[in-house]
User: What shape does this take?
Amino acid sequence: MISPDDLIQLSALQHYAFCSRQCALIHVEQVWAENRLTAEGRIMHEHVHDEGNESRGDVRIERGAALRSLELGIIGKADLVEYHRQLDGSWQAFPVEYKRGKPKPDHCDKIQLCAQALCLEEMLGQRIPAGALFYGKTRRRLDVDFDETLRRATIEAAQKTRELIESGQTPKPVYSKRCESCSIVGECMPRTIQKKRSVESYLKRMLDDT
Assistant: This one.
């Protein structure tokens, strides 16, 4: 168990799974900059949370649900948690995370959603088999099964994210195409720093050869 005073933000797992340098810049160096994409995402989340809770027959909806796991050492919020009434009268939790864009080729969004499910399992004492990601660009839900592979990846992400934040070290940049969609690319400067490192390595090799 991890002390409540040492919990890290659940969103940091998604940042780490996307890019460990981005995670460190945000959660270690406290760097943040907003662009059009993050502004649209923030507005979407605020709109979801402002709608409030409601009931629709055999489905209860809770928005902006507070989450915590002392096992994983994370704290955060779920955009929306649906509770579906079962035949025995119990309620089955089903987390839904809202994203501005479209499904990603990696698992960073699924890891964030699975982390929410693991928090709910610890808080509610029930197994949560699935949830969904709602993407604003496609206006569709993507159902996500919380299988053992995804659960292991999420637990590992939580451990590695904690280690990164506690180390206080920011990884060096490695430029890729997805850097251009990152809101803090200007603060990260992956191309500039990587090019500088390449020049320094070249000069060092030249000096070593002479």
